[in-house]
Amino acid sequence: MADLPECPSMSGDRVLPDELRAWMVVLASTGAVEQRLRSVVKERLDVSHDEFLVLCLLAEQPAGLRMTQIAELLGRPKTRLTYQIACLQHAGLVTRKSVCGDKRGVEVAVTEKARQLLTESSGLLAQTVIQALEQFVGPAQRDAMCALLPGLASEADAE
User: Fold this and answer.
1) Could you give the number of structural domains in the chain?
2) Residue percentage of the chain with pLDDT more than 70
3) Rounded Cα distance, 120 and 117, in Å
């Protein structure tokens, strides 16, 4: 693991409660992973990071999801999601269909092509996530995470 700078929120006077400090660690580690994944996702899947998130979400839903559900789960505006879905559909990675009985509802599902791409790239993508977290998450960050996941500390003690 690389030498990590001391987390500013971990030293000195603590202004934030443990839970909020832990949430900041989650956000920072997520950012580190996203930054690493962007180039790998573009190179291997030829999609943006946001489109990749849509594919990952849909890959776990064999029947697909409604556009409104995808927007809610990913915290994305529906208008932006519409554009992303159109790009993925143009690339042959998702299908769209109207929801029976709801003229405004649209359901999206991944194609076999998308499943194949995700399967072929999953090892490299998983390794990219691990490497990003290994560089970011040190003892201070791990301790901060225990505020959100108290079981994390007891699991580590059991090892």
Assistant:
1) 1
2) 86
3) 5
In a domain, 52, yes or no: yes
Task: Evaluate whether residue 57 is within a structural domain.
Answer: yes
CATH of the domain at 97: 1.10.10.10
Distance separating alpha carbons of residues 132 and 4, to the nearest angstrom: 12
Determine, yes or no, domain membership for 2.
no
CB-count burial class (<10 Å; 0-12, 13-18, 19+) for 8: exposed
Q: Report pLDDT for 3.
A: 52
> In what helix (H) or strand (E) does residue 155 lie, and over which residues does it extend?
helix 150-158
Three-class SS state of 49? helix
Question: Could you read off the pLDDT of 78-105 as tens digits, one per residue?
Answer: 888 999 999 999 999 999 998 777 777 8
